[in-house]
Fold this sequence. Notes:
The structure is a homodimer of 209-residue chains.
Chain A: H1 3-8, H2 16-30, H3 37-44, H4 48-54, H5 58-82, H6 87-104, H7 106-114, H8 120-145, H9 155-167, H10 169-172, H11 181-194, H12 201-208
Amino acid sequence: MTENQSMRRGRPGYDRQGILDVAVTAFNEYGYDATSMGVLAERLGLSKSAIYHHFASKDEILEQALDTALSGLEAVVADAALTADRAADRLDRVLRGAVHVLVEQLPSVTLLLRVRGNTEVERRALARRRDFDKRVTALVAEAQREGSLRSDIDASVVSRLAFGMINSIVEWYRPGGRENADGLADDVIAIALDGLRMPTSNRVEELLG
Amino acid sequence: MTENQSMRRGRPGYDRQGILDVAVTAFNEYGYDATSMGVLAERLGLSKSAIYHHFASKDEILEQALDTALSGLEAVVADAALTADRAADRLDRVLRGAVHVLVEQLPSVTLLLRVRGNTEVERRALARRRDFDKRVTALVAEAQREGSLRSDIDASVVSRLAFGMINSIVEWYRPGGRENADGLADDVIAIALDGLRMPTSNRVEELLG
């Protein structure tokens, strides 16, 4: 596409990705149902037909945004599975990678976490989320079997609590603040894997058995 | 009030608390804004004026529900402060107590966690939540100073991640399931304070320094 064609497809700066970014922000602010194509057009300073040039429907915008978040998370699990690391180290990679996806795709992940399954697009996204959760739970169970993670907590509870901690980051993280993604990922790993408590001599003796 | 008077104040089974329970469930299901007094009246099988006999407005119902959740959480912090325990042990009590409040007041806490500050009642609830967060953060900082919690993570990040884990329980916990409040509280404490990783001999040597 030449620059001229690009100009004719909408106002400069609003290609497909630009429309998507503005739409996701509006969905997070007002809710998906409450954000009409008319509201989006107004926010973008475009006609509705200019938006329809890029997306067949509001549902397609939602689907694309949720796919951004889900593809990122799925890639993290798939990449970890390619390594020959112990399960506990692959879990470390997954938790760390998930924090990065969350920070780098904050608006899309925020949208994903609010999906309740009201439409077919939302239900498909929830099914992919459940599949992701299952893969993480399987990884926790594998690490428990190999003896590198404590096995006195149900693997699905571990997976839910660890992701509860990670997902809560969308509630308070603001880009450009004191913490960057690497620092946050270090904090999550430190708490989830090693805990907050300083070892007392008692505990170390207990560990040494 | 005699039983007869009680009957005249509404259908049997719907005293003030009964109305509150049904209203909170509806707010969580449809959202507060989308739930009108008419919808509530229909759900309860009462006239709107029968509801107004117990609550001056929809806002008062919301305020009461949020107060249930907030008072529970505030009592947990206040009770822990009365003990002479070390800060790390008081934090243990607070995290454990918060899981109990969450499980026992699941609908009210769910409602609290969704509040975005759209009304004066919501803004007052958010201010109380921030105050609670500050007290937890201060407790974490105190435990870090006394040397019982690791101090390489910012106290407010610790507090946010720990409560991210706890608050996420509203997303998946269903009363009557396999886990009860005590078991869940044990799991949260185990992960947050001691971590998931089994000690390796290397790590124990490192701890013994």
